[in-house]
Amino acid sequence: MQNFMNEKIEDLQPFWHTTSHILAHAVKDLYPEVKLGTGPAIENGFYYDFYRLQPFTPEDLKRIEVRMKEIAAAGLPMVREERDKSEAEEFFRKTGENFKLEIIKELPGDKVTFYRQGEFIDLCAGPHLESTGKVKALTLLSVAASYWRADEKRESMQRIYGISFPDQAALDEYLERLKEIKERDHRRLGVELDLYSFQDEAGPGLVFWHPKGAAVRHIMEEYLIHEQQKRGYQILYTPHLSDEHLWQVSGHLDFYRQYIFPALETENRRLLVKPMNCPGHILIYKNRLRSYRELPLRWAEMGTVYRLEKSGVLHGLLRVRGFTQDDAHIFCRPEDLDKEIKDAVSFALDVLRTFGFAEFEIFLSTRPEKFVGSEGNWERATDALKKGVEAVGIAYRVDPGEGVFYGPKIDIKIKDALGRSWQCSTIQVDFNLPERFGLSFINSEGKEEQPIMIHRALLGSLERFFGVLVEHYKGAFPFWLAPVQLAVLPITEKESDYAQKVFERLTKDGFRVMIDNSDEKISKKIRRAELEKIPFLAILGKREQEAGTVSLRQHGKGEQGVISREELFAKLKEFCNQTGGAT
RNA sequence: GCCGCCUUAGCUCAGUGGUAGAGCAGGGCAUUUGUAAUGCUCAGGUCGGGGGUUCAAAUCCCUCAGGCGGCUCCA
């Protein structure tokens, strides 16, 4: 989950922190045997970690919440107390709080601070509210496991999450937002709108695109391919399997092994399913001698890759095991780098805007501690990236040392309709692979020179981006993307011939149209089509048939009046060209 | 992968030891309808798979799979 009203978060931190103490207080009251971990404020609320053998049940949470409300209502003052470390250690030894003891031992200095509210005392640096009474509205949200000190070898704690506010209205607003997030969840909408599925029989993290989801994906792909071709990219296809040797040369077997599916043994080879597209593109590059005259080469592939993600991290379409990247690799001369980067950045933004996103966060990640290539090259590449970002006129942030070992990169995140951000585009300079594969071209002096390689994905993974789109539009895709753009709804059987005529004409014109010939009342047909979030409905009754018109209805907007068929075709044509935020 | 929870009809969910239920969706019939749910009727489940306890298991236990919430991870 992302920030809830950015501007408020800082103010609410002590607030949430205090509520986490109230949580711990309540838990100790009700379950004295529980041992306390830590309980900070987080981006959206707070949590507290507890060590307890039995899991907390939903009923437990209810009891705890009731007790918390009592503690809050009691208006206990939060008293800060300074203690000698030895005294504090003695205290926690007596109370058996071994996790607190562990923390104290690692704290610098010989004083520590406690916060006391009524009978409850906790080791804490603060700051806190002056009284528990400030917390007027609170709720517990969930309980989940966590490792003590985030170490999977240590004790498993139970982490209780909650949130609180100074008034009930703010809490209600927050819960409303949670509800909204749930309603937009692409996993729910994927089922409701029959877009895609996962199949137990096939395995986790593998996407089955149903006709409607596939229709959207196909439009996305066609659009991307077309835009790339307009910008001098060429399309490649590379095999899904290739010899293990290739992955040894690329280095993936060394540092990416845990994500590669086990090898397929065939005859005298061991084949790996590709987790990346780059080595394949490189083989094509190396297939013959390259001249500086043909650079830059911009090679793109809708490249489907498979990565063995741990089962616990899979999440709908956002984290899968098989996905398709809108991948491209640009091989260029060092002197072309600036232009190629600049073009790639503005290309990425164009594409993201087309899909309806208007707000971006751009990150420039620079050289990490461990790196390959020369410092001079890194500097030049980082400089090129910087210029590329500056050219598009959007503020960006530098993440020092966050680059990958093989080169600096630019990441672009989009903000969706709820203000949540999602990582999409990435533009990375690579000093590693050209070296490993010994790439070269013949320069104008007839000498061999190493090309610079840029990895670039615009949407990232089609699956993931599709999931984000579903949530962004709440399943109501804009006209140009909608799997069904218009539904023809005859009012009675008597209009079915006319309806068929309209349906066929629109279909022939290339629109994605369905016709509802079911034996239902028109209001039922409309309801069904509205629930499917079809952008336009053409309702045809006796009057329309006689006049050769259609009664048009737009999703979410209701009746749009009666228009002629020609007007309808013209209108739909126009809508086709409306990308970006338009419906 | 780890911890916890969950898995009953296509979907959403009742049913806690005595051999399965509702609404929606689907099929059929009637109805021919004017902008978000016409009525009647039928069909649909080896209760996620396997094993165990018991006279008897959707229900209790074990195990596997999948999902969910987190943790960790996401060069």
The description of the largest β-sheet is: 8 strands, mixed
Ranges where pLDDT stays below 50 over 5 or more residues in a row are 1-7
Structural class based on helices, strands and sheet pairing = alpha+beta
Q: What proportion of the residues form beta strands (DSSP E)?
A: 25-35%
Summarize it.
With 583 residues, the chain is α+β, with helices and mostly antiparallel strands.
Question: What do you see in this structure?
Answer:
By secondary structure, the chain is of the alpha+beta class. β5 (about 110-115) and β6 (about 120-125) form a beta hairpin. The relative contact order is 0.08. α3 (about 85-95) packs antiparallel against α4 (about 100-105) and α6 (about 185-190) packs across α14. An eight-stranded mixed β-sheet has the order 11-15-16-23-20-19-17-18. Strands 1, 2, 3, 7 and 8 form a five-stranded antiparallel β-sheet that branches. The longest helix has 25 residues, at about 5-30. It has four domains: about 5-180, 2-Layer Sandwich (Threonyl-tRNA Synthetase, Chain A, domain 2); about 190-240 and about 275-470, BirA Bifunctional Protein, domain 2 (2-Layer Sandwich); about 245-270, no CATH class; about 485-575, Anticodon-binding domain (Rossmann fold, 3-Layer(aba) Sandwich), CATH 3.40.50. The two termini are about 25 Å apart. The structure holds one RNA strand of 75 nucleotides.
